[in-house]
Specification:
By secondary structure, the protein is α+β, with helices and mostly antiparallel strands. It has four domains: 53-172, Topoisomerase II, domain 5; 257-337, Gyrase A, domain 2 (2-Layer Sandwich), CATH 3.30.1360.40; 376-498, Topoisomerase, domain 3 (Orthogonal Bundle), CATH 1.10.268; 538-877, Neuraminidase (6 Propeller), CATH 2.120.10.90. Helices cover 28% and strands 24% of the residues. The strands form 13 sheets. Strands 23, 24, 42, 43 and 45 form a five-stranded mixed sheet that branches. A four-stranded mixed sheet has the order 14-9-8-20. Strands 10-11-13-12 form a four-stranded antiparallel sheet, covered by helices on one side. β4 and β5 (166-168) form a beta hairpin. It starts with a helix and ends in a 24-residue tail after the last helix.
């Protein structure tokens, strides 16, 4: 029979006992989807604000707890852990459970791993882990710490999925895991992405908020400056950090760590040692290679890529000889995942609901959770102590009435009969009072006699004969007294909030002491600017500047140490052919030892100062002529560099540049004998075009500048071999535009050529134009008043020539000598003998015919970065400071 429309509309017969209801399909789908979405949000994708764990993570860790896989036990197969989790707590399949277990064991995924894995658990390059039948695991110490005191009724237990057992709804969490390890998850209509932080810093922040609930975000940032990723790297700028601290949302710019290494032959290579969190290292290397093969502008100078990584990242990029490393690095940041963004969204489950958390919210929720845990633990311990105390009271009553106790037991036919008699009997407490024990339950006293409880009677009937000995009685008395003390202490904890919070802080500080590790991620000040000093190795270099303004920096290792009197090596090519006056067309005028991260202050002959970092100076070979300083500094017409000073770059714990807040003064000396001192902090803000450093009178020029403490003694040395020693305290501090006061009275035709800072354990090295020099103890230079004519420091003759320079030196120092024709020699100071003031000295450099010595400068120790500060400056020239700020002051001047 063919179907008709009417047959479709007819109601189908209903089976007996069933009810069919008409529903709106759209409403039903909406209702079911809401139930599903809430299940995903609450029970799958988002971590709990209290212990920082998702349900799947919590169930795996609890299954390991139940298996007894503790940090001090042997590893067990991951298949066993997965099976236990799946069968008892999390019936979602091993393909969901095993990756979660692996994630908690990967040190590049978790800042503080919760699982200690053994075997192949994958790699940062995206390699998958071995099958779970091959790998083994156990709880890591911090993973076990999350469940500490769980057996003391500190958290609620709920039925598992099939009601066969119970599982914890949350862990006690002895440390703030949500902030320490962060978390990521995608739910329905919402997602979370919380960065990891340093364990010690988070604990400090928690303790600070306990002490001051109204603490500001600025104060918290001093303790917890930002995220601390397991892969290290650098976070550029603090604005994004402050944003998510204050609102729960923010964007961080994360960069890998890169530096430049010098190779033999003047070549360089770029080395990547850290990559941003969450970036696949193999994919990053592949992407760089792809861009290089495509000859992408900016990366075309890369000639080779080598991945030399083991457990630590090391990717080497070979570049062309004439390539600029900083340009390549900037393009790597721009074109690859070497720079990535981390979008923070601090969403977590708080009291059964998803909540966007600020930093203070997250800390406050954890503090409240730990407060509840400590309260419940204390109540549990108090209850157990009171129960034990009650039993001990029964023992004491029985032992105090031992004869009567034995009589009742012996006269009873059954245990139940003895139990009834003991409950009905009223015991005396006279003997107990003789033991100086005060029973807790006074309500059980009737006419001075004591009625036992059922629990006490049951415990008395379980007593063994050996417990009736005198020694055992003493043990019961001691235990009871200790329990009374413990009960009073536990009651005090419950009664006093400050004690409760103090316990939270003490336990967190103990966790910090045992498990905190140093910060790995560096927080850079500016989000938009790359910190170039982080890309260039901090190493000693030699700065050279010619008379015509050609500047360069060169590796110190390019100059080998030689014995006194050697010929030296060619340090810089100069233009050949003398001038009409018989001088070479160009020659080395300044030579300076520094470190690549330092600042250089360029003082001009007209009294202005310019500031640049050493790493901004062109890096060139020993024989290269250099580049025009006009490309580096905005010099005015007629200006030339008269003196240089190295200011070591320094930052505080929050990576704020405190270079110019270091103590001390800049002490100036001019050619005509004027001196002046100005506080270093007045040079904190130097414009690109320079600023006034000292007022210069007509016909005068700056010849040298030193960094002093304000209490040093200085020596001025003149071209005709005269000198004067006086205390700089005779020169009052002046502003930058001041012209200064008279330092020495000069003879006609004489001029100041050098200034040295007095050091008690050092000597004054004076060098003549014809290559002769000598060292003289400062004791031979008596202190005079400022402005006098001075005394002889070197007997100048035709053999010595005029004085060209002077330095404060020690036996362990090295010096660099430079001639007008560019000949350079590096030699040890101890090879130059000491002599009196009124002597000519010994030959320290063998000059070619027609050549003359032009300058002398100190040299730093090549193998010590710190020695860049310590070896190139007289010690007394350093301003005293707690961190031993080490100013340099030695410069070669004319």
């Amino acid at each position: 029979m063919p179907e008709t429309p009417e047959s479709h509309s007819a109601a189908a017969p209903q089976p007996a006992g069933e009810k069919v209801a008409t529903v709106n399909v759209a409403e039903e789908i909406k209702s079911c989807f809401l139930d599903y979405s809430m299940s995903v949000i609450i029970s799958r994708a988002l971590p709990d604000v209290r212990d920082g764990l998702k349900p799947s993570q919590r169930r795996i860790l609890y299954a390991m707890h139940e298996l007894g896989v503790w940090p001090n036990r042997k590893h067990v197969k991951c298949a066993k852990i997965v099976g236990e989790t799946m069968g008892n707590y999390h019936p979602h399949g091993d393909q969901a459970i095993y990756p979660t277990l692996v994630h908690m064991a990967q040190p590049w995924s978790m800042r503080e791993p919760l699982v200690d894995g053994q075997g192949n658990f994958g790699s940062i390059e995206g390699d998958p882990p071995a099958s779970m039948r091959y790998t083994e695991a156990r709880l890591a110490p911090l993973g076990a710490l999350l469940m500490q005191d769980m057996d003391k009724d500190t958290v609620d237990f709920v039925p598992n999925y099939d009601d066969t057992r119970t599982e914890p709804s949350v862990f006690p969490a002895a440390f703030p895991n949500l902030l320490v390890n962060g978390g990521t998850g995608i739910a329905v209509g919402m997602a979370t992405n919380i960065p990891p932080h340093n364990l010690g810093e988070v604990i400090d922040a928690v303790c600070a908020q306990i002490d001051n609930p109204d603490i500001s975000v600025e104060e918290l940032m001093c303790l917890m400056p930002g995220p601390d990723f397991p892969t290290g790297c650098m976070v550029c700028g603090r604005a994004g950090i402050r944003q998510y601290y204050e609102t729960g949302r923010g964007t961080l710019k994360v960069r890998g760590r890169v530096h430049v290494e010098e190779l033999k032959g003047g070549r360089e290579q770029i080395v990547i040692t850290e990559i941003p969190f969450g970036v696949n290292r193999a994919a990053l290397v592949e992407r760089i290679a792809e861009l290089v093969n495509q000859k992408t502008p900016g990366l075309a100078d890369i000639t080779g890529i080598r991945d030399e990584s083991d457990e630590n990242t090391r990717v080497v990029l070979e570049i062309k000889r004439d390539a600029t490393p900083k340009v390549i690095i900037n393009n790597l940041y721009r074109l690859t995942q070497l720079e990535s963004t981390f979008a923070v969204n601090m969403l977590a489950i708080d009291r059964g609901r998803p909540r966007l958390l600020t930093l203070k919210d997250a800390l406050g929720c954890y503090i409240e959770h730990r407060r509840e845990v400590i309260l419940r633990r204390t109540r549990h311990e108090l209850r157990k102590a009171e129960e034990r105390a009650e039993i001990l009271e029964g023992y004491l009553i029985a032992l105090a009435n031992l004869d009567e106790f034995i009589r009742i037991i012996r006269n009873s036919r059954t245990r139940e009969e003895a139990r009834v008699k003991l409950l009905a009997f009223e015991w005396t407490r006279q003997q107990i009072e003789a033991w100086h024990i005060h029973l807790r339950h006074e309500d059980r006293l009737v006419n001075g006699r004591y009625a036992l409880s059922e629990a006490q009677v049951d415990a008395i009937l379980e007593l063994r004969l050996y417990q009736l000995t005198g020694l055992e009685i003493d043990k019961v008395i001691r235990e009871y007294r200790d329990l009374l003390e413990k009960i009073r202490d536990l009651q005090d904890i419950l009664a006093r909030e400050e004690r409760l919070l103090g316990i939270i802080k003490d336990e967190l500080q103990e966790v910090k002491r045992k498990y905190a590790t140093p910060r790995r991620t560096e927080i850079l000040e500016e989000a938009g600017d790359m910190a170039i000093e982080d890309l260039v190795a901090n190493e000693p270099v030699v700065i050279t500047l010619t008379h015509n303004g050609l500047i360069k920096r060169t590796q110190l290792s390019a100059y080998r140490a030689q014995h006194r009197g050697g010929k030296g090596v060619i340090g810089m090519g100069t233009k050949e052919g003398p001038t009409p006056e018989g001088e070479p067309a160009d020659f080395i005028e300044h030579l300076f030892a520094a470190s690549t991260h330092d600042h250089l202050m360029f003082f001009t002959n007209t009294g202005r100062v310019h500031v640049e970092r050493v790493l901004e100076i062109p890096d060139m070979s020993r024989t290269a002529r250099g580049r025009s300083i006009a490309n580096l500094l905005e010099l005015r017409e007629g200006e030339r560099i008269a003196a240089l000073i190295r200011i070591p770059s320094r930052t505080d714990a929050a990576r704020r540049d405190v270079t110019w807040s270091q103590p001390g003064y800049l002490f100036f000396a001019t050619r005509l004998g004027k001196v002046k001192k100005t506080a270093l902090e007045e040079f904190a803000h130097v414009r690109k075009g320079g600023i006034i450093a000292i007022g210069i009178e007509e016909g005068d020029t700056v010849i040298d500048v030193k960094w002093t403490s304000g209490r040093d003694e200085v020596v001025l040395i003149t071209r005709q071999g005269m000198s004067i020693r006086f205390s700089e305290e005779e020169v009052r501090p002046m502003g930058r535009p001041a012209a200064g006061v008279r330092g020495i009275e000069l003879e006609p035709g004489d001029e100041v050529v050098a200034m040295a800072v007095v050091q008690p354990d050092a000597t004054l090295l004076v060098v003549g134009e014809n290559g002769l020099g000598k060292r003289t103890s400062f004791d031979e230079y008596r202190t005079q008043g400022r402005g006098g004519k001075g005394i002889i420091t070197m007997k100048t003759t035709e053999r010595t020539g005029p004085v060209v320079g002077a330095l404060t030196v020690r036996d362990s120092d090295q010096i660099m000598l430079i001639t007008w024709r560019g000949q350079m020699i590096r030699t040890w100071v101890h090879g130059i003998r000491e002599a009196g003031r009124n002597t000519q000295g010994v030959k320290i450099i063998d000059l070619e015919e027609g050549d003359r010595l032009q300058a002398v400068a100190p040299v730093i120790a090549e193998h010590e970065e710190d020695a860049v500060v310590d070896r190139s400056l007289p010690r007394a020239g350093r301003p005293p400071a707690p961190d031993q700020a080490a100013p340099d002051g030695e410069a070669a001047g004319t």
